[in-house]
Structures
1.
Amino acid sequence: MRFLLALFRILFALTFIVSGALKLVDPVGTGLIVKEYLDFMHLGALAPAAIGLGMALAVTEFTIGICILGGLRIRIIAWVTLILTAGFTLLTLYLMLFNPISDCGCFGEAIHLTNTQTFLKNVVLLALAIFIFLGRKRATRVAPAWLEWTFVGIFAALALGVSVRALATIPQVDFTAYRVGNSLDELAQENQARYETTFLYTKDGKVEEFTLDQLPDESWTYLDSKTVQVGGSTKMAQVDFKLEQMTGPLLAVTVYSPEALDAKQLERINHFRSAALLQGHEVVLYGPSGDYVTADRKSLMTLNRSNGGAVYFNDGTIVAKWSNLELPEVDLTAVLDEDPDVLILRHRIREQLYVSILIAGALVLMAFMRIICKSFIIVK
């Protein structure tokens, strides 16, 4: 029984930790998902708080996962876990039955599940949560209550810090279609919707379908035709695929909420444009309306999570991204003189290093927590 309880706790905890962490590193993307939920629940008035609600949910998920894994406040957390998982299960049942949104956003942009897959996943998690709840009294306290709560607060604060930093700049790990190194031309080809038309004919009371290459002879009578999507996507976020045809470097500033830009942010954009013009490079301003090159707001948020941030393309390939806050620090001469492939490789290495540091840091902190708790119990 103890082995099963430990195994189920680990499985449940890792799921919550991964789910929470993937939302933490991309608070703007999480906010977009939360907004979709608010819209279908007719709570559009809360839309301005979508990012904040998403961050709160991500911190909660991550912290619960850590508590379950480390045995912190397990009797209380078991109640919270059961209630939260039951709520998620009912919500995803509704999503499966009525399909108001196509992706639950459980794992951010990293892993996409259908509504049916999401519901089945939550059924399994609910079963694990029930098992953890029933075994909560067998769990051994790792430290006095105040010390356990202290570590819960530390993990929650660190999780919030990661999310706040990502919100202030851009995600350090990008799981969107427009991550550094991706080619707009390849994305357009991979995600372009593909259709197939079939034709319905009847003969001697039988109705059969035929493709354009295999039409029947004149003894058959035409009834109807139907066209179905057989590949690609009509929902792929597209900015302006004319960029595919661009040769050489192109700098683009993406503004998805012009009204939210303050004087300092506008000053950073103007400074960036001036620096580019001095080097003979034009900066294209993309926005939802007005004096901008028009692009869909959600598409702009997908291309760059920072309102007023910039993207460097080379021959249609995304080479670098900057948040609005980072624009004054960008040395365009150094960037544009560098080999694009080297810049992309360097960015990928930074992504991997960031993930490694986060994982190592969490493991070290948990090990430190166990040592402190064990020592405290021995002393007391």
2.
Amino acid sequence: MPLGKRRPTPLTERDALLLDLDGVVYTGPGAIPHAVESITRAAEGVRVGYITNNASRTDEAVAEHLRELGLSVAANDVVTSPQAAVRVLADLVEPGSRILVVGGDGLVSEVENAGFTVTRSAEDDPAAVIQGFAPHVGWEHLAEASFALHTGIPWVATNTDWTIPVARGIAPGNGTLVSAVHLAVGRLPVFAGKPEKPIFDVAAERFGARNALVVGDRLDTDILGGNRAGMATALVLTGIDRAKQVLAAPAGQHPDYILTDLRQLFEPYPEVRESVEDGVRTVEVGKAVVRMKQHVVRVARAGDPLDLLRAGAAVIHASGLQIFALDVDEQLRDLAVRS
């Protein structure tokens, strides 16, 4: 790199910043440290959108929550899994069909906005079932879905999130509820939210994005989905997935950037320098150096914990092997990156 030229940041040349919400912008009702000021700064130079699998609230309710945190947000800035699910549903049933809804206001609102009729009972002979998370969803709602689905009608689910971060910790997500119905009916739904493409297609179309950056806290939804959609991805270590999950991430779930918090969107991203000599793969990031020979991964120099994570992930991911098949240095296995 020419002398005096700064390395690009994760936001360099982006035309849209697509942010997950839970674990990225907020946890429960409160904002994650540094999130609001970082997003406000980003909005000065790039279109900011919010892309969420949360199906329990309307886009306006989400926008209102974000405004309460101090952000300038309109409902149209929020792309939800119910919006994507309804788009998928429209290809499976006739316009105006009666749809059995399992979920909250956010899902009901989108189904009605698309011109469908909502029912909560299998006895109303629905043309399809659409399912999304809401805290009140219980056995009776899942049973109605099961009764209806045994007739063979289409089934669309907003997302497969196994867990969600809430103020008190990690709680079961929509994936657990979908799994209960799956076990009862013996088949799976069509999924619309992250990590599937429909929700990213909705976002790209709405924001006119050609070179977007997707930021999330989950490898199996945000990062996998962004990668599938051909978008650049950044994992922020403020939510579900941390260093351990990054190192163990399978192919398809490797982020382009690993960040401790959203402030690093504006910082030059360190170069990942890789070389192979005499069967030894060496990766350097900043002052951190990690080497791998055959199935053995060792830290040659620790440096900054975040750079060590970046280097370790690069070595392991480049090998094409899963972490359980490797002898990994304890410094990497025990790595804790503070945000």
